């Protein structure tokens, strides 16, 4: 098995290519891991009696079909699931391996809050790169919407922060995000209208997505008229709790059948963490860990942010999308670019064409996997919804857990 | 459809942060002071947020706080506040959400056991 590495210089310039198998100074790995295929279930509130195990199976079988692979080709499974409280199943990786007919494969579970799915893709990528596996299935799943009542889910998710300080106050995720958004708005001049514009656009983008949870034909006045959840956030500023699963299969090109189809490679990954408590951050409105994760991913891909032509960004709340775009380095003035329509579906840098978490939905463990899948499909022009008007070469995927506490970023590239 | 009911009652030892929680239960703000750079932090975290030192000593604060940002839900209010003497800030519940003020004092709140809560100073009162 041959591993191709590319050394990248400190400014992101490709210096050399070859099979030395060494990564200089711990960065700059030019990765040859492809998104061989993928599939997702609809994200919604399931009322059809199906189980989370069924959703995993549907996503996995769909991904195998998309990758033109047999089940027996998979030699590793990485499962992403945020909380056993939703599924009432500890050690879910073993259960899912059993359910998918992958007994005998290596399997593990990756958890990093809202970044769980994306971190599972990172883990699968590392397995392939290191030669520990040839073809990895990354399966994300969450039953966030219907297995527990909304109040209980809210209590559980409030412990996504420091459960000993923030959690004991009874503060919700929305209130934590609201406080961060206010710091962002104070520093940048962003207004509630800017936040509402994101909420509207992502729901409008979702209208073309058959798997979306909230494809809504709404306007900014609808956001303003929706009930206050935690000021300045109103209901339509918040992403929904969803049920669903998603799967991508990762592999080197030489370990895949030649289907003649274009594929997308993961050309850079980066991850970082921040102080958990907002109050321990120098600027509670700035997503510093996301900045670090993006720099690492872009350096690994050997590109700068200007090369990114499409992005799926973690919009758990409308304001969080603007905070993320700023942190990812995709804009030098996020408020001006937002108002100029740069991130619109037909803008210079379309963001969340899938609808994002606000529109496509957010079954936590599945979210990051679905973001990677959507971006890969958008780069190929095959996303079953909105696609970029032109064919960008690079796409960026951004996810986080907590309030941008655990951050994961990937750069995808058309082969 | 199968329905399962799970009732959980956690007992959570607080380890080296126990003095902070004991003080909080008495309505007292016990902060950490870094033995290396003198930074005071409240709530404590076990490691200095400025220099990373783990040599921290307990020090009492007045318990007064200034509101930096405030968010209101339909039935509660929370704020990011800075306690007097601390370099970091904290998310707290507001015990009297009907009051609009930017200053308050740490209180024992029955609605958030062991959580940080402040009572806002009513305009005109001089006790904060």
Report on this model:
The complex is a heterodimer of chains A (415) and B (128). Chain A is of the alpha+beta class and 415 residues long. Chain A has a domain at 5-147 and 242-255: Thiolase/Chalcone synthase (Peroxisomal Thiolase, Chain A, domain 1), CATH 3.40.47.10. Helices cover 34% and strands 20% of the residues of chain A. In chain A, the strands form 3 sheets. Chain A has a 9-stranded mixed β-sheet, with helices on both faces. The longest helix of chain A is centred in the C-terminal third of the chain and has 17 residues, at 364-380. Chain A is globular and about 55 Å long. In chain A, 61% of the residues are buried. The model of chain A is unreliable at 1-29 (pLDDT under 50). By secondary structure, chain B is mostly beta strands. Chain B has one domain. Chain B contains 1 helix and 8 strands. In chain B, strands 4-5-6-8-7 form a 5-stranded mixed beta barrel. Chains A and B meet through helix 6, helix 7 and strand 7 of A and strand 4, strand 5 and strand 6 of B.
Classified in CATH, the superfamily of one domain in chain A is Thiolase/Chalcone synthase
**How far do the termini of chain B sit from each other?**
56 Å
Give unreliable regions of chain A as ranges: 1-29
Radius of gyration of chain A, CA atoms, in whole angstroms: 20 Å
Radius of gyration of chain B in whole Å, from Cα?
Answer: 17 Å
Into how many domains do the coordinates of chain B divide?
Answer: 1
- Gross CATH architecture of one domain in chain A: 3-Layer(aba) Sandwich
Give the ordered list of helices and strands of chain B.
HEEEEEEEE
Beta percentage of chain A is 15-25%
Note the total helix count of chain A: 14
Which sheet architecture does the biggest sheet of chain B show? 5 strands, mixed, barrel
Mean pLDDT of chain B: 92
Q: What are the secondary-structure elements of chain A, in order, as H or E?
A: EEEHEHHEHEHHHHHEEEEHEHHHHEE
Largest sheet of chain A: 9 strands, mixed
- Estimate what percentage of residues of chain B fall within beta strands: 25-35%
Overall average pLDDT of chain A: 92
Give a count of the beta strands of chain A, DSSP E runs of length 2 or more.
Answer: 13
